[in-house]
Amino acid sequence: MTAPDASGFAHRFVPGNSEGPTLLLLHGTGGDENDLLPLGRELLPGAAMLSPRGRVLENGMPRFFRRFGEGRFDLEDLKVQTELLATFIREAAAKYGFDSSKLIAVGYSNGANIAGSLLLTEPRLLAGAILFRPMIPFVPESLPDLSAIPVYLSAGRRDPIIPPQQTSALADMLTNAGAAVSMHWHNGGHELGEDDVVSAREWLAKTKTHIR
Ligand code: MLT
What we know:
This protein is α/β, with parallel strands linked by helices. The protein has one domain (11-210): Alpha/Beta hydrolase fold, catalytic domain (Rossmann fold). The chain has 5 helices and 11 strands. A 7-stranded mixed beta sheet has the order 1-3-2-8-9-10-11, with helices on both faces. A two-stranded antiparallel ribbon has the order 4-5. The longest helix has 22 residues, at 75-96. It binds D-malate (MLT).
């Protein structure tokens, strides 16, 4: 773990060994900055990885923003934390020297939800996103322009935490905003399956060559 920086995010940065995209890893509730590093290595071996820890604690479990209950988000806090995360990302790009125009978010559950919030509020910050088990983080007053931004979404057909129709609704919202959306259906629940990893890896291999 590294010490929190000015934006207050403890994080890990793993330098890459190629000029390709940098992965922004965003863990689920109760995770930390170490959680998704193995997943990142599986998705794109050799890629640089920036992995912050959510700043909010819920009964001792790190998250990226507060909630009042399952699926009931504190939208004020979501807005503030999304802005702080965007600032952290910009500062980290300058500090570690990665190409911020090639940043691909990889989020799981709560991490996928703040990645969705970043897409909706800071549409130029991410070059693409892989969102495992996401839902609509909030409904924006107007849709941002996400033209040509590739987004991969994965939902669990029997997910008791993220109703799969929420992920479909997010897919529709992002498509309406112009994103190039790919949807994967996992036959299990909230946990990631091997099929999630394999299909996201294949999507990334195809996508990384033509990110803007
Ligand atoms: C979670 O437990 O992480 C959620 O259900 C998703 C969220 O709260 O953002």
